[in-house]
Amino acid sequence: MEYSPILHHLHVVPSSSNVKNKLFVMCIMLSLWVYMIYCCVGYCTTIPTPSLSASTTRSEVSEGDGEFDNQLDSSLGASRDLLNNENELDSRGDDWDETRGEAKASQGDNAMSGFFNESETKKLPGAIIIGVKKGGTRALLEFLRVHPDIRAVGAEPHFFDRNYDKGLEWYRDLMPKTLEGQLTMEKTPSYFVTKEVPSRIYTMSKHTKLIVVVRDPVTRAISDYTQTRSKKPDIPSFESLAFRNATAGAGPAVVDATWSAVQIGVYAKHLEHWLRYFPAGQLLFVSGERLISDPSGEMARVQDFLGLRRVVDDRHFHFNVAKGFPCLKRPEGNSKPHCLGKTKGRTHPNIAGHVVQRLREFYRPYNNKFYQMTGHDFGWD
Question: What are the alphabetically sorted keywords of the record (predicted)?
């Protein structure tokens, strides 16, 4: 048989380009498969899913004397909130959308590991921010949500004051899923001033840690009024609402303690209800003023109280001079800080000096009692 050069050339090793093409197709298919899993996990993470031993015992609080005590005691259960000045935007947590979006992005980074981790469960809150309205509760919650060991629901559940009849399982279902070692939290500022709430939280868990953000009650009342006026511009003046006989020639002005804007700031009276169920050491009182002037310092206190590592510090804050509030930022990089929304930091109306002074005189005995009960002088007088 003769040698054929043609046949010799037909028996060749397959071209390397074919192998490369096959590998390229396989890589594309693998990439698509990974991307589909990632998308599914990212979608799932956007779907809403629903102790401390204290050395101090309950303080015995003596009842104060004065012209306001009887009026206040009778009005605590029947607040004159005729203006319906509930901050619905804050209740939904809409003021920090950018920050929450950043938090979701951070959660997305861990989405793949969470997809394969079945240890995530929904738990009842181990700590609750219970007050006070217009004290800085939204800012504190968002500062805390930066911490990797905290998972918190953004909107205010209002379970213990408005939805208690729906049951604990309904409440639990509102909470985000957490891993072992993570702390579940929520915030509803109206809890602090609602009489029924302390016993209800105690029934859920007597070990629940409670945080109250407080600020100068006079400034708080004006802020409360400012918020209401932004929604209802035709409301009466602050003075006419704050005093029962504010008209000229009606005699000395008497503070109307039935108006919710005034009533909320009588912190000592509200605290008495909580101390019937929880020891003083189980409540942490955060200064709303220091949360603005020294956010990292107050956050250190809060993280210590919750038994957490001090992760949120001065690297996370940037003070916005225009708004007068600290903004959140990533500790690394040069990303734009995320600040409070437009419903925060409103300019307060000018209130006459004699009105402010009269309110300060009204609050002074209650402030002093509050300082004694908490062991901390907030310096409002």
Answer: Disulfide bond, Glycoprotein, Golgi apparatus, Membrane, Signal-anchor, Transferase, Transmembrane, Transmembrane helix
